[in-house]
Design goal:
This protein folds into 3 domains: 6-63, no CATH class; 84-339, 3-Layer(aba) Sandwich (Aspartate Aminotransferase, domain 2), CATH 3.40.640.10; 347-475, Aspartate Aminotransferase, domain 1 (Alpha-Beta Complex). The mean pLDDT is 95. It is 38% helix and 11% strand. With 484 residues, the chain is of the alpha/beta class. The chain is globular, with a radius of gyration of 26 Å. The protein has helices at 26-32, 50-62, 84-90, 93-96, 108-125, 137-154, 171-178, 196-202, 225-234, 255-258, 267-270, 327-362, 385-391, 395-404, 432-451, 453-457, 470-475, and strands spanning 129-131, 161-165, 182-186, 207-213, 238-242, 262-264, 285-287, 299-303, 306-310, 369-370, 380-383, 411-412, 421-424. A hairpin with a 2-residue loop joins strand 8 (299-303) and strand 9. It contains 17 helices and 13 strands. Bound molecules: pyridoxal-5'-phosphate (PLP). The site of pyridoxal-5'-phosphate has 13 residues, from helix 6.
């Protein structure tokens, strides 16, 4: 049976609003609005009661799965619990009623919040200057690359290439292309990290930068990163780090101290704002002193206790977002940082690492192979290739079987260098009990796969949508209802 859509409840004359009769005479309307702008037919909207709307959307919402339902172990995505106090603060009327064009004398509180958040992020990352404007991680990457482009243009250097490890997130090469550079792939070794030798083999005067996630997408802290950055700097290239995995580092290691020149953060991941489904996000970019003059405008500055939007950035790469970024996400990140404090933040990183390593141990079995022999940090990757060889059950089938057991699947088939990859990031907010339960379910799925593979291959059977044809679903998706 097809799931009803809101139009299925529609009957002429039903309504969910209660408005006074229109008191503008017909004649006046035609004088006020040009004839060609008055529509001749009614819009095709469903005619439903308020109660039907509420029940319909409530029932749809209940089919969803969210971090508030249970573990959401998507590697790279950092789906951690979103403390309610963040929402409470973001909803304060002083924030929500603030118009983006409010004069700066009347928005000092908001500007101070942005300024202070920037200062805290500088301290956390070990960088010298910040822009809060980018709207997401990928947007921050693009901004970082535009900063580089402007910097090299200013220096009259023509550098065209950006080196990217083969384990990189897909947004990295995409951002590189958008910024007008050419992405050059570097190979990770069998333990999933990049070596100084491999980087050196690709270094020449055309290389603008290396763009690397650290810890990388296998959760491995790049062991040769300090030497690699030294080699980059000797070559006049920039060391860029994708900071999406900063939640493994806070209070333990600062990207600026390691030697990186530019980093983008994902406030919505590391600092606990709800995300997924398209945002909003926030992807601040932080740079070393020598790149400060290339930041996008405006930056938030302070002079004699007065906060202001500063458009006086000498060699700015331009403006990358209207107004000043996604303010509500900044408020939530700011609240989160203040709530945890220095000790709490360090503990959150250490617990994220402990949880990942605990879970890694708990799901060990002969049918999963670790993607690296090194100890991971906040996330880890296993290959389900041995299980596939033995039973034909793939990583995808494990993911579907998890859905049937009321849990969210991990990230699959990423990073691309690991066959049959399951990429798991439990985050620090899951309890030992929840990790134990997840591990138990995974072990049970493997056991069932060995005993009766069809019972896994035919899952899910309990979800509203059963197994879809993956190829058809991505090539010919039917995403809208068409009125007949
Ligand atoms: C999530 C992620 C990104 C992209 O961030 P968005 O905020 O989704 O644009 C980039 N790199 C890595 C490693 C990520 O995990």
């Amino acid at each position: 049976m097809r799931t009803p859509i809101i139009f299925d409840y529609s009957k002429p004359g039903k309504k969910a609003y209660n408005l006074p009769e229109i008191d503008v005479p017909e004649k006046e309307i035609s004088e006020l609005i040009p004839e060609n702008l008055i529509r001749k037919t009614k819009p095709r909207l469903p005619e439903v009661s308020e109660f039907e709307i509420v029940r319909h959307y409530h029932s749809l919402a209940r089919r969803n799965y969210a971090i508030d339902d249970g573990i959401y172990p998507l590697g790279s995505c950092t789906m951690k619990y979103n403390p309610r106090v963040n929402e409470r603060v973001a909803k304060l009327s002083g924030f929500t009623n603030l118009h983006p064009l409010t004069p700066q004398e009347l928005s000092q509180g908001a500007l101070k919040l942005m300024f202070d958040l920037g200062e805290m992020l500088k301290e956390i990352t070990g960088m010298d200057a910040v822009s809060l404007a980018p709207a997401a991680g990928a947007h921050g990457e693009l901004t970082g690359l535009l900063i580089m482009r402007t910097y090299f243009k200013h220096k009259n250097e023509k550098r065209t290439k950006v080196l990217i490890p083969d384990s990189a997130h897909g947004t990295n090469p995409a951002s590189v292309m958008m910024a007008g550079f050419e992405p050059i792939q570097i190979k990770s070794n069998e333990d999933g990290y990049i070596t100084l030798k491999e980087v050196k083999d690709h270094l020449d005067k055309d290389v603008a930068a290396l763009m690397v996630t650290n810890p990388n997408t296998l959760g491995i802290f790049e062991p040769e990163i300090v030497e690699i950055i030294e080699a980059l700097h000797e070559n006049g290239s920039i060391a860029y780090t994708d900071g999406a995995n900063l939640n493994a580092l806070i209070g333990i290691s600062r990207p600026g101290d390691i030697g990186f020149d530019i980093i983008q953060l994902n406030l919505h991941k590391t600092f606990s704002s709800p995300h997924g489904g398209g945002g909003p996000g926030s992807g601040p970019v932080l740079v070393k002193e020598y790149l400060k003059d290339f930041l996008p405008v405006p930056v938030v500055s302070e002079k004699n206790g007065h906060y202001f939007l500063d458009y006086d950035v000498k060699n700015t790469c331009g403006m990358i977002k209207l107004f000043y970024g996604n303010f509500s996400v900044m408020i939530k990140a700011f609240t989160y940082i203040l709530m945890l404090g220095e000790k709490g933040l360090v503990k959150s990183s250490k617990t994220a690492i402990l949880n990942a390593n605990y879970l890694k141990k708990k799901i060990e079995n002969p049918y999963f192979k670790n993607a690296s022999n090194l100890t991971p940090m906040h996330e880890f990757v296993v290959s389900a290739l041995p299980l596939k060889k033995e039973t034909g059950v793939r990583a995808l089938d494990i993911a579907k079987a998890l859905l049937d057991r009321g849990l969210h699947a991990p990230t699959m088939y990423f990073p691309l260098i690991v066959e049959e990859a399951l990429m798991i990031e439990p985050t620090e907010t899951e309890s030992k009990e929840s990790l134990d339960k997840f591990a138990e379910v995974i072990q049970d799925i493997v056991k069932q796969a060995l005993e009766n593979r069809d019972s896994i291959i035919n899952t899910p059977v309990k979800t509203p949508i059963k197994r879809v044809n993956e190829a058809q679903a991505s090539r010919n998706p039917k995403l809208k209802w068409l009125a007949d």
